[in-house]
Design a protein that fits this description.
Blueprint: E1 2-4, E2 21-25, H1 29-41, E3 45-49, H2 52-62, E4 66-70, H3 78-87, E5 94-98, H4 103-111, E6 116-119, H5 124-146, E7 153-155, E8 158-161, E9 166-169, E10 172-173, H6 178-188, E11 195-196, H7 197-205, H8 214-227, E12 237-240, E13 244-247
Parallel strand pairs: 2-3, 2-4, 4-5, 5-6
Antiparallel strand pairs: 1-3, 7-8, 8-9, 9-10, 11-13, 12-13
Helix pairs in contact: 2-3, 6-7, 6-8
């Protein structure tokens, strides 16, 4: 494990702001070094770890603002590390790196608590954009909490309390993952409006470019299982063929 700080003269983030701490968990030394170099150049405070066991130790020591986590790791795999971090109450965003290109691997990663994934090979520019988007999302959530009260959303049998981050459907509490809650809040807060998958990626995930829209589809599928009477024939969270999704009042 090695820890790196940004060089003097780096201007991102601002000199009057604390540098965001990034933990890179990657066993490929060449990729690890390339990521470290580019992240430091962007002004991040970087720690690297070569296996899952060391990664858990570094999270406890460094308390990173974001974690870049390879799926295939020695000692302890990325999925196991992700599960352990979420079980321990770590809320920092986790971006998974994977050489696999099956939907199953991505879905499992999201299910165990990852916030995003990047499939190898990837461009460093894309990864930096996703890191920035995740950190912006965290800051946005903090800002929203500081600007209480936030108006409750009530659409049909759905009630959402954005301030308390709770939701109920027909009086029944909903157990939602953070991104599920944000997606449902965004759509239900604009009932009847249709949004493309790219628009939802930008508004909910924070991506300012066209990303992998299957991420949206996965979260819509999860939400339907929780809010619809029949997830196979949704009446609330509807697909508009050839366009995207809308929440029907």
């Amino acid at each position: 494990m090695t820890h790196y700080s940004a060089p003097a003269g780096s201007t991102s983030p601002g000199l009057d702001q604390p540098r965001k701490r990034v933990l890179v968990v990657e066993d490929d030394r060449n990729l690890q070094e390339a990521l470290r170099y580019n992240l430091v150049a962007e002004g991040y405070d970087v720690t690297v770890a070569g296996d899952g066991g060391i990664a858990l130790e570094k999270v406890r020591e460094r308390k990173p603002d974001i974690i870049i986590l390879d799926l295939m790791l020695p000692v302890m795999g990325g999925l196991e590390v992700c599960r352990a971090l979420r079980r321990d109450g770590v809320i920092a965003p986790i971006v998974m790196l994977t050489a696999r290109d099956s939907e199953l691997d991505r879905v499992v990663g999201l299910e165990v608590g990852a916030d995003d994934y990047v499939t190898k090979p990837f461009s460093v520019r894309e990864l930096l954009a996703r890191i920035s988007a995740q950190l912006r999302r965290v800051e946005m959530l903090r800002s929203e909490k500081a600007e209480l009260p936030i108006e409750t959303i009530s659409v049909g049998g759905l009630e959402i309390d954005p301030a308390g981050r709770t939701a109920r459907i027909d009086g029944r509490p909903l157990a939602l993952r953070p991104r599920e809650f944000e997606l449902l809040t965004f759509l239900a807060g604009r009932p009847g409006r249709v949004f493309t998958r790219d628009q939802l990626l930008q508004e909910v995930w924070g991506f300012d470019y066209s990303g992998d829209t299957r991420t949206v589809d996965v979260h819509v599928r999860w939400l339907r299982m929780k809010i619809e009477d029949d997830a196979a024939n949704p009446t609330r969270l509807q697909t508009v063929r050839g366009v995207g999704y809308r929440y029907s009042a």
